[in-house]
Design goal:
This protein is mostly helical. It has one domain. The protein is built from 8 helices and no strands. It is elongated and about 70 Å long. The two termini are about 40 Å apart. The model has no long low-confidence stretch (mean pLDDT about 80).
Length: about 250
């Protein structure tokens, strides 16, 4: 019961914190230098791990799906299935999880270090809103960088699927490309990118919340970073399921 009560307390605190962050994000001043600097750091840290984590997914989907499609003589439809899975589900979710692991933990550790060193209190003494100066840039950076990385993973996922299907699986290259372009619509790409933006906002909010809650020196900072990764991964999976159910209900 104690653990359940703590869970609800955390959810309630995070909801109230989210409103505070959104209020700060909607007002001035806006620290664009902080945002751009964090975006540069996140791209540099996340691009290679995200690419390595997601690129093989297309090959795995093609490997598993090719034999099944061949049972029905419909291997030319594999590319449509591959594109739909990559654009709408696998790329947004996996890219966001990797951003949570790489960027979310880093942002939480940075804010947590500032908290335990007294730098957050120093900002308040100088009449600088720490939420606006520290949390909002991280949230905006994650919301912008995550879709950018998803575009990269879309390309890598389809490329690895093409490699296994066409040169290695003897699927006709013309049929592969024709069905991919015929069945995949711009809406599929925009849905995936929209999911990534939602996930990115969530990553930034959770990282900021956990970082500002850090106490107890280095151990507390490490705990905040670890809690950020766990919480954001759960958030991504739950929100992804909820959004997918809503889209299915709307026929999208």
């Amino acid at each position: 019961m104690h653990a359940l009560a703590r869970t609800f307390e955390t959810i309630g605190g995070l909801v109230l914190f989210s409103f505070e962050v959104m209020r700060a994000a909607a007002s001035r001043p806006r620290y664009w230098d902080e945002i751009l600097g964090l975006m540069h750091v996140l791209v540099r840290r996340c691009m290679i791990p995200v690419g390595l984590a997601v690129a093989p997914v297309g090959a795995v989907i093609s490997l598993q799906g090719l034999e099944i499609f061949r049972l029905f003589g419909a291997e030319q439809e594999l590319s449509a299935f591959l594109g739909m899975a990559i654009f709408r589900e696998y790329s947004p979710a996996l890219a966001s999880i990797m951003v949570a692991a790489q960027a979310g933990s880093s942002i939480a550790a940075r804010i947590g270090t500032m908290k335990v060193r007294g730098q957050i209190e120093a900002l308040e003494v100088m009449s600088v809103d720490p939420v606006r100066y520290v949390v909002v840039p991280g949230m905006v950076a994650c919301a912008l960088v995550t879709p950018m990385l998803s575009v990269l993973t879309n390309i890598l996922g389809v490329a690895s699927g093409w490699l296994l299907s066409v040169p290695l699986g003897d699927v006709d290259p013309g049929s592969f490309l024709a069905n991919l372009t015929a069945q995949i619509h711009p809406a599929d790409l925009w849905i995936g990118l929209g999911k990534c933006s939602i996930f990115g906002v969530g990553i930034g909010l959770i990282a900021g919340y956990r970082g500002l809650q850090a106490t107890g020196g280095a151990a507390g900072v490490g705990q905040a970073a670890n809690d950020t990764v766990v919480t954001t991964i759960v958030m991504i999976l739950v929100v992804d399921y909820a959004v997918s159910m809503v889209l299915l209900g709307l026929g999208l």
